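P.,

For your records, the input lines for the assembly:
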Amino acid sequence: MNININGQSVAIVATSTSLSLSELLEQYNAQLPFAVAINGDFVAQSNYHNIVVSSTDMIDIVSPIFGG
Amino acid sequence: MPHELTPQQAIRYSRQILLQGFDLECQEKLLDSRALQIGVGGLGCASAQYLVAAGVGTLTLVDDDVVDSSNLQRQILHSEADIGELKITSAVNTLKALNSQCDISAIDQRLSDEQLATQLQQHDVVIDCSDNLATRNQLNRLCYQYKKPLVSGAAIRMEGQICSFIPSQDTPCYQCLSQLFGEQQLTCVEAGIMAPVVGIVGSMQALETIKILTGFGETLSSKLMLFDAKYNQWQTFTLKKQPNCPICQHT
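Structure tokens returned:
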């Protein structure tokens, strides 16, 4: 299925009937460190594996910024 | 008793006083306010410049760094003649020339927890313009402890972020945000920074600070605003209190 990640439509293969956020991040090859927001809400890392992602979700993968 | 504007001040700040809902009252609140700003680098130069021009009553700057020629590209309170001098010296001189009525002071060292706590109790708001995670965490921890609003800004490459943390039972703290990531530190030295990006983020921090001090408009509490300077996008995210946060879930 196609999922909107950082404003781009990305083809992601669901290996089972539902796609978890951690599966998506693995396939997208997201490089640590990052935080993830689904539809504008940030998600705790501990929840990545039990969050089910659908094709209507907007995913944002955000890098940390500390510079001043 | 709130500070009453003199006729000269009413003229000087007339363009803000004209703003519907800001009025004389908010300008007077601003003149009575005390802001503590950590860092006079890229973010801090922009933030301090607008706070002082806009009429904040008291501004205390904290920075132990000296001006380097590589700072001049974006740190607009320092000039060529200031290279090798303390950043706070050039910052204070430039700011005093901008507004002699603002009570500006500076501290040329990194503050211990104890020193920071003393400063926090003498100020109404803290502006985090620092460039490292250790300082950001220290400010958050003490601001939460002393219930002081914290205006956090950060920038790198072509990206910026702004967020305000106003301690309460329901609002998240900086640690709630930073723990969403790993523990990587990046500074401008390693990654580069486009000059106006720090100006934009620092200006946003000044705006947030004015809003918090005066109660005018809506702040970015529980929200994170990200700026993508490369592709001209602003995004606002919702940030919730993290159930396991070691700072703000401590009862």
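Two observations worth noting. Residues 195-214 of chain B form the longest helix (20 residues). The two ends of chain B are 35 Å apart (CA to CA).

Regards
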